[in-house]
Amino acid sequence: MLISSTRCHWAQSTNQQLVTYHDQEWGHPEFNSYRLFELLSLELMQAGLSWATVLKKRTAFEAAFQNFDYHQVATMEPELPKLLQNAAIIRNQRKLTAVIKNAQAIVKLETAGTNFSDFLWDFVHHEPIIHDVPTPSAVPKTIPLTDHVSHELKHQGFQFTGPVVCYSFFQAAGLINDHENQCPFKEH
């Protein structure tokens, strides 16, 4: 068992769900397009809320969004009114619409011959960017790369993918490794 004080500052918590997320998912390079869609969806849901809130509702999101199968989610526009009534999830119409539109954008990329995972990993030349993070305050909210990613995603039809959401998504999916330097999950 790791001593919690060595984890990233944000994961030094009594919330076991948050600690498990940090230890087992956050910052680990993800290459599966379905999992990347899930992480993007959760990150946009988190905007303006706490990550603990999103994690608490994750199972409900999985059920509501067909286990984040973007082929199925792409057809869910008629189900939006039902989603807005689902008290188990975050019922923000803009965010729910964005999840559906983003699934449609991924399907469109695939139809054009572009794998979503490859599309994203091309931005970092298929190698995680490892930042020097000596303190929690050293982590920016966005960087020029994620400003560019945001622009490109919007160009492809994605919604609710501003630079801050993109940066958080890249951190979560391991395209950017922002574990603090003392964290045992930092990869040098």
UniProtKB/TrEMBL annotation:
> One short Pfam family name for this protein?
Adenine_glyco
The source's superkingdom equals Bacteria
Protein name according to UniProt: DNA-3-methyladenine glycosylase I
Give the species this sequence originates from.
Fructilactobacillus myrtifloralis
Lineage of the source organism? Bacteria, Bacillati, Bacillota, Bacilli, Lactobacillales
